[in-house]
Write a structure and sequence with these properties.
Oligomer: single chain
Strand content: 5-15%
Largest sheet: 4 strands, parallel
Radius of gyration: 19 Å
Number of strands: 8
Order of helices and strands: HEEHEHEHEHEHEEH
CATH superfamily: ANL, N-terminal domain
CATH class: Alpha Beta
Length: 221
């Protein structure tokens, strides 16, 4: 029987880029120039955010987080929110700083969220208003500083700074910021995400992901 050998060109995954740099700054001959192409759309308000706007908002939020809250390299930030147009902005701004994101299910109980804060050693929380009561309750349970909590969305019912406010503040005050640059090979070793397992066989375990893992997934898709 005749045999056929299939040759496959292996993908080259950059090992010196953060997830933010890969998604927002990396150029490739086959990658289209997005510019004002709609990137995210708010299902409720109809707000459309273009690729250029996402990139700018990410940079401004990173500048505000470093200036106002002294977030820095390897700080862990918990993001607790349903789908939202600024979810990626919040995530990528942390990665631009060199920080680590641990995403949390907004349907968690305060006890579950407290456990995630403790096991990941998170030092900052970005939370959607729909889950802010849970986040504040969890913070009290584990003595988490309330001043280290901000809202992902604008909501006048809570006396907390919000991502849109911080972005506007950074733009108005021209906060300076230099993104964290990775050394060659660091993209396959530096932590980017701390993901919790389902916990079906006990307490959830933490999965540690470096930037190269989601890059490979994105490139193959």
């Amino acid at each position: 029987m005749a045999s056929t050998t299939l040759s496959e060109t292996l993908l080259t995954i950059p090992d010196n880029l953060s997830i933010s740099q890969f998604m927002l700054d990396c150029q490739h001959p086959l990658r289209p120039q997005r510019g004002d192409t709609p990137c995210f759309t708010d299902n409720d308000s109809g707000q459309i955010v273009s690729f250029d706007e996402v990139k700018l908002r990410t940079q401004l939020l990173a500048a505000a987080l470093t200036t106002r809250y002294n977030l820095s390299d390897n700080d862990v930030v918990l993001i607790c929110s349903p789908n939202h147009v600024d979810y990626a902005v919040a995530t990528w701004s942390v990665h631009q700083i060199g920080g680590i994101v641990t995403p949390a299910n907004p349907g968690m109980t305060p006890e579950e969220l407290c456990y995630q804060l403790q096991i990941t050693k998170a030092s900052f929380i970005i939370v959607h208003s729909a889950a802010v009561i849970t986040a504040q309750t969890a913070a009290r349970k584990c003595n988490f500083p309330p001043t280290r909590i901000i809202l992902l969305d604008d909501c006048e019912h809570y006396d907390l700074n919000s991502v849109p406010e911080l972005i506007s503040e950074a733009l108005a005050n021209q906060y300076s910021f230099s993104p964290k640059l990775l050394k060659p090979g660091e993209g396959s070793t530096k932590l980017a995400l701390l993901m919790l397992s389902s916990g079906t066989t006990g307490k959830p375990k933490v999965k540690r992901l470096c930037p190269c893992v989601p890059m490979m997934t994105d490139a193959k898709s």
